[in-house]
Structure formats: structure tokens, C-alpha cells
């Protein structure tokens, strides 16, 4: 006989419920493709593709207020693998950096004891990826090393800091949102704290400043509500503190830089979004809500397109896309307009249910997640439908076009594609003024719609009553499901399957709070609820019998239940034959569960029951034996009488056997006992058999015990617990009793663990719980509110022989090991219902192999692949998919930020240089070819990497807008300066002449206007101006000197001066807008060299700059020298394919190919390695020999299987 039955292995897990208000901002969607969400003191990790919770991290003692995934903006290899790193901050000021897969903490950081205000990983330098910037209230920012927990520096500011935002285009710029305004920091660096206190800017509230409204011209029609707001928001940024009546910035909800355009920022107010141009400190656009509209809570700007996702107070998510300025009739464009293009359904908002936060997928920017306060997560996807909109001329919206391209390259005629892969493949580029409209052939008109693709729901609000279904036995092992029934305060019962942690059924059973549940079989249970008492103290009792497979409920006590004292407890006997219902001031009732009949209602003088328990002993076995013996005797008799042949007799005995079995299960009523205690502590013993009830022995009370609160009985051990915290252990065999005072107050519940011979006992107190071993009479483990956990326990049960389940007042239900230490589980031990695609969950080596395997396929000639997403599979196997498209697609699948940026720029410039080359060849042959369409620009979010012509147009557009919006002399001066640099002299002169006579710089500006108009290209005047300019620059007037040099077309010199004085970004900007390609290329090459220098260490940025100049050899060399072997080899391969690089022995080509082959061999992809080695010419010969000598290689035959297995690994 086995002493213990081992239960199905259940993972420790946490079922979470409603969120705390402090969890509101604790959400983040990482490049890794997963969502992290704080729920009380735990953190949920959610997979948005399959809407499953795949990990719950527990270590914080207080509510989690911030979570941030680390950025994936670095090259991944075995030493810096794909890994899931998350930082979380809580209300007590502790920051934990997690290794999410194993559920362990890398390091813990504590500085102050106030809630963390904001967290962000630094993503932009090539040196270290472990740096974490945090705001510790009230006014400190601290830079931490997130790997070791060491503090690098700390800096305090004058005001309370609410949040911060990094400039995505320049990592040294940081804006702090403070309680009074904004602080701009321009010298942020990871090596030392910012030197200055930053530039403080105060913001007048949009509503309160009457000085800024300008009188409307009489002829103009009366403006609408939104237009009125626009007139008000003329100037919003002032450097001096606003006056008292102009309320300062306390209602600004959020500040973010726009990742789609450099030097733009948005400020969010409840009823409007302001777009600021930071060069002018001026509002250039407003998104205002009409009077009847729903206020904003949050806005997320996109990087791929100039678009905003907005969340409103009714839970509706809207997408607004910036209107193109290309239409000629809008020549007098007033500001940036964001048109509403799509919105999703709102939710029903109540006191307890309101939207908290919205998240956008950072990789593709076309999926949104909405966090609701009741613990729901709604996953929306943006879909593009081709087709014209219903004509609505009044809206004035231009149609949106979608590019017919896939992964950055034009779509082949019969190429498969993934629809709606990402935002920039759904919406074409916003046109810029002065550009021809695209040809219809290149674009399709699209409508955008939101689609709900997933929903996760949490537990309702506590209190809970929980009960685990009967334990696993050898008899039910084939169809056993570990189900946990949870009774809730609104009368419904939730049934969870604990293998997957998913909701199995939700049943609406009662009309009031569920007080208790008892299972009567593996698939049915009884639950009871009591309504609130009337003035007589009477209630309505509901006792329901629920059958799970069918969901059928019926009132177990029939018509009874109205106007009676409340039910205290129900207890089901061990064989599930009988039920005892105990009332508060009324004798107990005894029911037969099988027939649903009342066996006995006790007499009025029956003692008041305080605790009751059924005995595990019964006489079912002996009864069955007796009955079987009687049947056998009968069977023998009948057979001998008839003297049948032995064959028939065996048949008959079988039949009778079957008959007798069915009868036994029907008719046997085994004898069962229960014990209970009365208010004096006396123990009564009662026997039930069939419908007879006998009173047994009575045991006088134990003097050391108070009033008995609960009893538990298993085997020969009976345990009593009282209201004073004493436990009394009775050994019935040895007739010994032993009392132990626990000093923990009222013993609320005691339960024995399932499993034969398992004598562990779970005890619940008002302030926690303990596990006892009743054999040794010793405490095994304990948990106590305030000491080692921060939640109170509401209910307890065993879910297997070694795991307990606790319901707590923070709305969570936890399945824990017997030690009751709340711990995160390892993700790979999880039993998920749907497979999750997340390379970050694989071992580092496996993830890299998978990546190499996806990239490598074209050269092996065959396409074997086992990935769960079918559409993706067919695309990756499509022979039409070019190398560049494949690289881009894989970097998207992996959420690899640095890969994605590199391949986006590389693929664009490889194609454009290859095209230019073909054109020059064809022009030389004299054939006329159409110009490439101007539509394929790099998106403006790549900033200086864009083509000069496009960049120039964009800057002109921007100055035009600034000019319209300027409202003070300062602004006018800045506009004139910009116009001079851009070479728009006529317009600049007009602005200079606007200066009023009482302005101190009136004379200066007038002279400047004269100078600009009279500049001639005669030698002497040029040399004079050049001399003046150089003197100015030498004496610290850099900007003015540069302007003069630009006037005489010496912009190249101006760029050189700017670079000498460290103004690298400004120089690059000027080169892009003023210089011819050759000169501009020199300036940018110098910048790339500067970026590579060890003190700057921005090689990744330098590579992008070189790509935009078409220096492909140099890029190949750099990638190889940085040991980015796979990227280098694939890039060079693409260059050769597009004919922009010739292969020769001295180029970096061969070395890169050999090193990539070595990398593949180390990952076990031997065929691929051989292929690359053979491409490398003589350099690869040695490696080829090693490979086929069998060193570190695998026999040829195994290889195919290996690759297939890899594919399968990725799906698990």
C-alpha cells in the first residue's frame, strides 16, 4: 500500500482581481511583445497575442506604482542574449529589477520611502544597457545601474517632479514635468549628473489668460468651440512665472516628446492636446474636444507616423492622424490638424469600473490594450480596409492611402504578405506641401477600424468563499480536473481550472453574498447564501445544488428558506450521502443528498452547535462484503439447481455480478457519524444510518479550552480549535489529548490535507494562517499579516496534498507551496492552453538559433518551418520574399529595436542607390526612363537620415507654420533667423522690417534687412562679410556668424565652424538643408567619425549616418569590426544582390562571411555554415575542411531533423 497519493503537479500561481488606484500607472508594453501590469503588490506578465497571463511576479510588499521593460536597442548575441528584464517600483520607494522567465529578482534598490514617480531605462548609448533613471519623490532624479543596484548619481531640483520624458532624437535632452511647469535639461549624460538646474518654463493654463486672445476679424464667421480654444492658446509658454489669475500648470496630465518629428512635444490637458514646437516655444497645433465630448485621460504619440492614440474617460480609444498640408487651397494653413480616423467602442463606466491606462505595441504601433480598474484587459487591433469612404464632403477629410509595399520593398506580383503588419504599412506617408499627389497605381485608399481581439478578466471584488473539488484518487485519475469554486459577494460562483489558471465556468447562482460551498461530487456542489437580516434578525437563506456540466441549479431545500435565522454552515459527509445544515438560533437539519429529502429536523431543546465535523470512518466496506456474500450464495444456489454447463454459469455469474454492483451503489446506506460541540464545549457524537439517527456518547468539556470554534477529523486524529487560539489534538487510538496555545486569537478554520496518511493541517486565524503536522504536533510554516505578507487572509483550503490555496483581501487568490512563501513561478514550468510566440522565453542559444534559422532559409533551398501562426509561416516560406524583407520581418517578430532601425534605413538606401545606379546606366545608354516616384522617402521620424530634398521641404513647411503662429518679437526674430539659414531671403527681409520703432533692436534689424537685400557676389563685399563672420564666431556669437556665412553661400564653412564648436546636430541640419550632396556628405562623414570616437561611443548612430550617404563598404567594415557577424554578412549579401558592392578578396566581405559561418556552426546549423564558408573564397577553405572533418559538426543525416526540432521548440 502506498502511504501517500501524489496529486497532479499544479504550478504555484496567483489569480488576480481588481486593481488598486496606485496601480493605475503601473503598465508597460515592451519591445519583447509582452505587457507588464501591476496588480496590488504583484506584477502580471500578459501575452497580448493569446490573451494569457504567463507569469505573476511577487516580491513587493506594497502596491506597485511603475513598471518598465528594458529596451531592446542593442545587438543581440550569446553574451547579450534576448532576455526579459523588467524594472518595477512600488509605493514604499523600492525598485526591483526582475529576470522575468525565472521569476527571480536581479537586484533591489531603495533610496527613499515614498512612491516612485517615474522610471525609464536608458536605451541610447552603445556602452551599457543596464542604466535605469528613476524619480524619487519629492524632487530627486537618480541614475542606477539596474544590474548591480549601484547608484551612479543623484540630483535634486527646486520643484516636485511628477514625470519626465526623454527626447527620442537627442538623448542629452530631458524634460521634467514639475508641479509648476516644465524643466528642460540639455546636458543629460550617464557619466555625471546634469550640471545646470535646467531651463524652467512656466505654462499658463489654456483657459485663464485673456491677454492672449486676439480679436476676430469682423468678416470672419463666429468660430466653433474648438476654434475658440485655438485662439486662446496662442502663446502658452512663458519664461517668467505667470500672474496669480493665470492658473499654473497643475492640470497638465502628461508631457511627451513626439517620436515622429524632432523638437516637438505634446502637453495633455483634460479637454485638449497642445503640440509645441520647442525651437520657438510656441503652440503649433491643438486637438480640442467639443463641449459635449468626453475628456482625455492619456495620449500616446506614434513614431512611425505623425499620429496620436488618445484614451478618453469612457474607455474609448481614438486614433488621430496629422492632416497633410499638401492641398493647394490650404496655402494659409493655420496649424497642425489631427483628424479623427478611427475609434473603438466605449465601456460602461461605474463607480468601481473605469479605464486606467492604454498601451500601444511599440514594435508595430497598430495594437492597443486598455486596462480597466476591475482587472480587465481589453486588446484592440487596428485593421485597414481598402475601399472608399462614404462620400462626406462636409468633413473635409482627405482619404488615407496605404502603400502597396511589404517590409520596405514594393510588393512582388504574386508575393504573399501579412496584412496590417504595422502602422506604417497601413497608412502611407503624410504629404508635404509642394509635392505632387501620388499616382493611383502606387497606393490604395483605406479605412481604419478597431477590432477587439482579446479580453482578460480578473476576479471580482472580495470577500470570497473558496472550496477545492474532492481530491485526486486512483479511481478518478482518468477524468479528474483540479477545479476551484469561488463564491463571490454578488452571488455568482466562479469555477477556475488550476492547471491552466483560466476561468472554467462562471455561474450566477445566488442573489446575495455566497457564504460557503461544499462539493458533493467531482462535478456538482452545494452553495449557500444569506441575505441581510430584517429588523427581526430573520433572513432569506438560499441553498442551491449546482451541476457543473449542465449548469443546472435547483433550490436544495425546496420552498424553505424565507424568514428564518441565517445558516451558519453546511457540512457534507465523507461518502457524500448526508448533509448537515447548521443555523444560528435554530436546531440543525439533517438531509439525504442522494434523494434530496429531509431526514430529521432536531427538536427545539437540541443544544446550540458551535462547531461540527463528519467522521471519516464508516461501514461501507463491511456492508458491501456482506451484500456480496449474500448474492454469491444465491448465485451458487440457482446455478446448481439448474445444473447448467460451466460456460453458461460464468455468463450468469457475470450478469448477476453486474446487477449486484448496480444495486449496491443504489441501495446501501452506510452508517456515518458526526461530532459537534455546544456552547459549553461538550462534545456530542451522533450516528446516521439510512433514515435513523442515534445519539451516541458525550465527552465533557476540556477545562483548558475556551468556546470551540472548529473541528477537523482525519484517520485517528481529531483536532479542536477555540476562540482563544488554542488547538487540542486528540489521538483516538491511544486515547491521548494534547493542548497547544498558539496565541494567535480566534481559530477560524482548520482543514486536513488530502492524501492517505497525510496528516498535515491548515489553520486559519484572523491575522494569517499556519500549517501543522499533527503526527509530530509541530508547526510547519506560518504566515502573518503585517509581518511577512501585506494582505489579510479571507479563506483557506488545500488544493493538492502539498499546496494550499489562500483567498486574500487584496482581491487575489494564491496557490502556494506548503511553506506559504508567495513566490513567482518559472515560466517554462507553466501549462499554457495556447502556445506563446516569444523568442525571449527561449534559452539564449535557442533564441539565436531560431533567428539564424529564420534568416538562413533561402540558401538551403528548402523551406521547413514549424511556427504556429499560419499566415506568417506561408510568408516566411514564400520564395518571393527578398533578403531585406526577411531581415525586416524577423526583426519585427523578435521585437529587436536596433535590428529594426538598422534594416529600415539599410533597406531604403540600398534600394534607392541601386535604383539611382540603374538610372545612370540607362541614361548613359541614352534610354529615357521614368523618374522613381518621389513617394519612397524614409519617414521623417528618421530625421537627418532622410533624403535632403524631403528634409528641406519638411523644414520649409515647419518654418511656414512657425511664421503663422508667431506672436511676439522673440518668435519673429527666430523665424527670420531660420528663413535666412534656409535661404528664403525675401521672406526674412519682410519679417525683419516688421520690427516696431520702439524696439531696442529696431536699428539693428533694419540694417540687417538692407544688408540681406543688397548682398552682391562681388569679391570685396564677400571677403569683408566672411571676415566679420569669423570674428563674430571667435568672439562667441556663433549663431550670428553662421547666418552671415549662409548669406554669402559659404554654408560649408558655417558647418565646419558649428562642428568645431561641438554643435554637431545643428551642423548636420544645416548641411541637409543648404549644401550640395558632395559637401553635405563631407560634413556628415565628419559627424560619423565623431560619433565613433571613444568618448561619444555612438557607433550604431554613425552606421545609420553612413548608410544614408551610401558608404556601404565602410558600413560592412564597421559591422564586422564591432563583431556584429550576422548583421554584417547579411548586409553585405544584400549589397551584392543589389549590385552596389563588388566582391573582391581584400574587401571585408570574406572575413564577414567566414565569421558568420563560425557563428552558425557554434549554433549547430552546419549546412548553413558550410554555405557561407564556401562563399568566402580562399578565406573560408580552412573552415570548410574543419566542418567536413567533423570537428564540432553533426553528421549530415541528423541535420534536417535538428532544424525541424528547432522550429518546434519555438512553438512550445
From TrEMBL:
Limits of the WDR11 first beta-propeller domain: 22-318
Name any GO cellular component annotation.
Answer: Golgi apparatus
Q: Where is this chain primarily localised?
A: cytoplasm
What residues does the WDR11 TPR domain cover? 957-1143
| Keyword Phosphoprotein listed | yes
Query: What are the boundaries of the signal sequence?
Result: none
Localization annotation:
Cytoplasm, Cytoskeleton, Cilium axoneme; Cytoplasm, Cytoskeleton, Cilium basal body; Cytoplasmic vesicle; Golgi apparatus, trans-Golgi network
Q: Per its UniProt record, what InterPro entries does this chain match? A: Beta-prop_WDR11_1st, Beta-prop_WDR11_2nd, TPR_WDR11, WD40/YVTN_repeat-like_dom_sf, WD40_repeat_dom_sf, WD40_rpt, WDR11
Q: Entry's Gene3D superfamilies?
A: YVTN repeat-like/Quinoprotein amine dehydrogenase
Residue span, WDR11 second beta-propeller domain = 481-820
Could you tell me the keywords of this UniProt record?
Cell projection, Cytoplasm, Cytoplasmic vesicle, Cytoskeleton, Golgi apparatus, Nucleus, Phosphoprotein, Repeat, WD repeat
**SMART domains according to UniProt:** WD40
GO BP annotations of the record are:
animal organ development; cilium assembly
Report whether Zinc shows up as a keyword of the record. Answer: no
Q: What is this protein called?
A: WD repeat-containing protein 11
Amino acid at each position: 500500500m502506498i502511504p501517500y497519493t501524489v496529486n497532479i503537479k499544479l504550478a504555484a500561481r496567483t489569480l488576480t482581481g481588481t486593481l488598486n488606484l496606485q496601480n493605475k500607472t503601473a503598465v508597460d508594453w515592451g519591445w519583447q511583445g509582452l505587457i507588464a501590469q501591476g496588480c496590488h503588490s504583484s506584477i502580471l506578465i500578459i501575452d497580448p497575442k493569446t490573451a494569457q497571463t504567463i507569469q505573476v511576479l511577487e516580491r513587493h510588499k506594497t502596491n506597485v506604482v511603475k513598471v518598465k521593460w528594458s529596451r531592446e536597442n542593442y545587438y543581440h548575441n550569446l553574451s547579450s542574449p534576448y532576455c526579459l528584464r523588467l524594472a518595477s517600483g512600488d509605493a514604499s520607494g523600492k525598485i526591483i529589477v526582475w529576470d522575468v522567465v525565472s521569476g527571480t529578482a536581479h537586484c533591489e534598490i531603495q533610496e527613499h520611502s515614498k512612491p516612485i514617480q517615474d522610471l525609464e531605462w536608458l536605451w541610447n548609448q552603445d556602452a551599457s544597457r543596464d542604466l535605469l533613471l528613476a524619480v524619487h519623490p519629492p524632487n530627486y532624479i537618480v541614475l542606477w545601474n539596474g544590474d548591480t543596484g549601484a547608484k551612479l548619481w543623484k540630483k535634486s531640483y527646486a520643484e516636485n517632479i511628477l514625470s519626465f520624458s526623454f527626447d527620442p532624437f537627442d538623448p542629452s535632452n530631458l524634460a521634467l514635468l514639475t508641479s509648476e511647469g516644465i524643466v528642460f535639461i540639455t546636458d543629460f549624460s550617464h557619466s555625471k549628473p546634469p550640471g545646470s538646474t535646467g531651463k524652467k518654463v512656466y505654462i499658463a493654463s489654456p483657459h485663464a489668460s485673456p491677454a492672449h486672445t486676439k480679436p476676430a476679424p469682423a468678416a470672419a464667421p463666429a468660430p466653433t468651440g474648438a476654434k475658440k480654444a485655438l485662439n486662446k492658446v496662442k502663446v502658452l509658454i512663458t519664461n517668467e512665472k505667470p500672474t496669480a489669475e493665470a492658473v499654473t500648470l497643475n492640470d497638465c496630465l502628461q508631457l511627451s516628446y513626439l517620436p515622429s518629428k524632432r523638437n516637438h512635444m505634446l502637453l495633455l490637458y483634460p479637454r485638449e492636446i497642445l503640440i509645441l514646437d520647442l525651437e520657438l516655444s510656441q503652440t503649433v497645433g491643438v486637438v480640442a474636444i467639443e463641449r459635449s465630448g468626453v475628456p482625455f485621460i492619456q495620449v500616446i504619440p506614434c513614431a512611425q507616423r505623425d499620429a496620436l492614440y488618445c484614451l478618453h474617460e469612457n474607455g474609448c480609444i481614438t486614433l488621430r492622424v496629422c492632416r497633410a498640408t499638401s492641398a493647394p487651397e490650404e496655402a494659409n494653413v493655420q496649424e497642425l490638424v489631427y483628424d479623427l480616423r478611427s475609434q473603438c467602442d466605449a465601456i460602461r463606466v461605474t463607480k468601481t469600473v473605469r479605464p486606467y491606462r492604454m498601451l500601444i505595441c511599440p514594435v508595430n504601433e497598430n495594437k492597443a490594450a486598455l486596462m480597466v480598474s476591475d482587472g480587465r484587459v481589453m486588446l484592440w487591433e487596428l485593421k485597414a480596409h481598402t475601399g472608399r469612404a462614404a462620400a462626406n464632403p462636409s468633413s473635409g477629410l482627405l482619404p488615407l492611402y496605404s502603400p502597396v509595399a511589404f517590409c520596405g520593398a514594393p510588393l512582388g506580383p504574386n508575393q504573399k504578405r501579412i496584412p496590417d503588419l504595422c502602422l506604417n504599412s497601413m497608412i502611407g506617408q503624410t504629404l508635404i506641401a509642394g509635392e505632387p499627389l501620388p499616382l493611383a497605381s502606387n497606393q490604395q485608399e483605406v479605412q481604419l477600424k478597431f477590432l477587439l481581439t482579446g479580453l482578460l478578466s480578473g476576479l471580482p471584488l472580495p470577500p470570497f468563499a473558496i472550496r477545492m473539488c474532492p481530491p485526486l484518487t486512483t479511481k478518478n485519475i482518468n477524468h479528474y480536473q483540479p477545479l476551484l469554486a469561488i463564491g463571490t459577494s454578488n452571488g455568482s460562483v466562479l469555477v477556475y481550472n488550476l492547471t491552466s489558471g483560466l476561468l472554467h465556468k462562471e455561474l450566477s447562482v445566488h442573489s446575495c453574498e455566497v457564504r460557503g460551498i461544499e462539493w458533493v461530487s467531482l462535478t456538482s456542489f452545494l452553495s449557500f447564501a444569506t441575505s441581510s437580516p430584517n429588523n427581526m434578525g430573520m433572513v432569506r437563506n438560499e441553498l442551491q445544488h449546482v451541476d457543473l456540466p449542465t449548469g443546472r441549479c435547483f433550490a436544495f431545500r425546496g420552498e424553505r428558506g424565507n424568514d428564518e435565522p441565517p445558516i451558519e454552515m453546511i457540512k457534507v459527509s465523507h461518502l457524500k450521502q448526508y448533509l448537515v445544515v447548521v443555523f444560528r438560533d435554530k436546531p440543525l437539519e439533517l438531509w439525504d443528498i442522494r434523494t434530496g429529502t429531509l431526514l430529521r429536523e432536531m427538536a427545539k431543546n437540541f443544544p446550540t452547535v458551535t462547531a461540527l465535523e463528519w467522521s471519516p470512518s464508516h461501514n461501507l466496506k463491511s456492508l458491501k462484503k456482506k451484500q456480496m456474500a449474500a448474492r454469491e450464495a444465491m448465485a451458487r444456489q440457482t446455478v446448481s439447481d439448474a445444473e447448467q454447463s460451466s460456460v453458461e454459469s460464468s455468463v450468469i455469474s457475470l450478469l448477476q455480478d453486474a446487477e449486484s454492483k448496480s444495486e449496491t451503489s443504489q441501495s446501501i446506506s452506510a452508517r456515518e457519524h458526526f461530532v459537534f460541540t455546544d456552547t459549553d464545549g461538550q462534545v456530542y457524537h451522533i450516528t446516521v444510518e439510512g433514515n435513523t439517527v442515534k445519539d451516541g456518547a458525550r465527552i465533557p468539556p476540556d477545562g483548558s479550552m475556551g468556546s470551540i470554534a472548529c473541528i477537523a477529523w482525519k484517520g485517528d486524529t481529531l483536532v479542536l480549535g477555540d476562540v482563544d487560539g488554542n488547538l487540542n489534538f486528540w489521538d483516538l487510538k491511544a486515547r491521548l489529548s494534547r493542548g497547544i496555545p498558539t496565541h494567535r486569537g480566534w481559530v477560524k478554520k482548520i482543514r486536513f490535507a488530502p492524501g492517505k496518511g497525510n496528516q498535515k493541517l491548515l489553520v486559519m486565524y484572523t491575522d494569517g494562517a499556519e500549517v501543522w503536522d499533527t503526527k509530530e504536533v509541530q508547526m510547519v510554516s506560518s504566515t502573518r499579516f503585517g509581518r511577512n505578507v501585506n494582505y489579510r487572509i479571507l479563506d483557506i483550503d488545500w488544493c493538492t496534498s502539498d499546496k494550499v490555496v489562500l483567498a486574500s483581501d487584496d482581491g487575489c487568490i494564491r496557490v502556494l507551496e506548503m511553506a506559504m512563501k508567495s513566490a513567482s513561478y518559472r515560466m517554462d514550468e507553466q501549462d499554457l492552453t495556447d502556445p506563446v510566440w516569444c523568442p525571449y522565453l527561449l534559452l539564449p542559444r535557442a533564441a539565436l538559433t531560431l533567428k539564424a534559422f529564420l534568416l538562413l532559409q533561402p540558401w538551403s533551398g528548402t523551406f521547413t518551418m514549424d511556427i504556429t501562426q499560419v499566415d506568417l509561416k506561408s510568408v516566411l516560406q514564400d520564395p518571393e520574399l527578398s533578403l531585406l524583407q526577411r531581415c525586416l520581418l524577423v526583426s519585427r517578430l523578435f521585437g529587436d529595436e536596433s535590428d529594426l532601425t538598422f534594416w529600415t534605413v539599410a533597406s531604403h538606401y540600398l534600394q534607392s542607390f541601386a535604383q539611382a545606379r540603374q538610372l545612370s546606366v540607362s541614361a548613359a545608354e541614352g534610354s529615357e526612363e521614368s523618374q522613381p516616384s518621389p513617394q519612397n522617402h524614409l519617414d521623417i521620424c528618421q530625421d537627418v537620415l532622410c533624403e535632403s530634398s524631403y528634409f528641406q521641404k519638411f523644414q520649409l513647411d515647419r518654418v511656414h507654420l512657425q511664421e503663422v503662429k508667431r506672436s511676439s518679437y522673440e518668435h519673429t526674430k527666430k523665424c527670420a533667423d531660420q528663413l535666412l539659414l534656409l535661404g528664403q531671403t525675401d521672406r526674412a527681409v519682410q519679417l525683419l522690417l516688421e520690427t516696431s520703432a520702439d524696439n531696442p533692436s529696431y536699428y539693428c534689424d533694419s540694417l540687417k534687412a538692407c544688408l540681406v537685400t543688397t548682398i552682391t557676389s562681388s569679391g570685396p563685399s564677400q571677403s569683408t562679410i566672411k571676415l566679420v563672420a569669423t570674428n563674430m564666431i571667435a568672439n562667441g556669437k556663433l549663431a550670428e556668424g553662421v547666418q552671415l556665412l549662409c548669406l554669402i553661400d559659404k554654408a560649408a564653412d558655417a558647418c565646419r565652424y558649428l562642428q568645431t564648436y561641438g554643435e554637431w546636430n545643428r551642423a548636420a541640419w544645416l548641411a541637409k538643408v543648404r549644401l550640395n550632396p558632395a559637401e553635405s556628405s563631407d560634413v556628415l562623414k565628419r559627424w560619423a567619425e565623431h560619433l565613433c570616437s571613444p568618448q561619444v561611443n555612438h557607433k550604431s548612430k554613425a552606421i545609420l549616418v553612413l548608410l544614408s550617404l551610401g558608404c556601404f563598404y565602410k558600413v560592412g567594415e564597421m559591422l564586422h569590426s564591432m563583431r556584429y557577424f550576422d548583421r554584417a554578412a547579411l548586409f553585405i549579401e544584400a549589397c551584392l544582390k543589389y549590385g552596389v558592392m563588388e566582391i573582391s578578396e581584400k574587401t571585408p566581405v570574406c572575413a564577414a562571411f567566414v565569421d558568420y559561418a563560425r557563428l552558425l556552426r557554434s549554433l549547430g546549423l552546419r549546412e548553413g555554415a558550410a554555405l557561407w564558408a564556401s562563399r568566402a573564397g580562399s578565406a573560408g577553405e580552412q573552415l570548410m575542411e574543419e566542418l567536413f572533418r567533423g570537428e564540432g559538426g553533426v553528421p549530415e543525416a541528423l541535420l534536417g531533423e535538428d532544424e525541424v526540432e528547432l522550429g518546434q521548440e519555438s512553438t512550445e
